[in-house]
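Progress report, Aim 2. The chain analyzed during this reporting quarter is listed below.
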Amino acid sequence: MTTCLIVAADDADVIGRADDLPWHLPSDLRRFKELTTGHVMVAGRRTHRSIVDRLGHALPGRCTVVVTSQPQRLSPLDGVVPQPDVESALHAARTIAAFAGDKQMFVIGGAEVYRQALPHVERIYLTRVHDRVAGDKAMPAGWLAGFQLVTEERVLGDALPYSFQTYERP
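Predicted C-alpha cells for the chain:
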C-alpha cells in the first residue's frame, strides 16, 4: 500500500487561508479529482468541512476518513469514516483500501494532518505555486527532506504560474 500526500503549496509552503485554499486553479482541481477518485482519503475535520461547505456533500467516488475528536459533529454522510487521530485514520484508510484491492491511499490535509502523516508517506503529489500568497497555514519546515523529485510538469493558463511535481522516497 502506497501512502500518498497531495497538496498545493506556494514558494513559501503556504497551503491555506481561513480554512480554504488561497487560490483557484482549475487544472489543479482537475488533477486532484483524477488522482483521488476511487481511492481512500484521510482529511482533518476542517478540511473535510470546507469541502462539504463548498460542494454540499463529501467528495463523490471516494471514501474519506476524517480525523476528529468529536465524531458527533460530523454530518452522517455516505463514504465518511471518523477516526480519533491521524495514526488511527491512516490505519483505517489502509485497511479500507486493502479490502477494496486498492494499492494507494491519499492524505489530503490540513496542515496538522500533513505534519503527522509525513513520516508514513512514500509519495507526494505537489502542485507548486510559483508565487507567494498570504495565508495562515503552511507545510512544516523541511517537509520535503528525504524525498526526491521524480517528475515535474509546468502548467500554463491559470491565474498563477505553477507546476505539478511528484516526489518519492528513495
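The chain has four helices and ten strands. The two ends are 16 Å apart (CA to CA). These observations will guide the mutagenesis work planned for the next reporting period.
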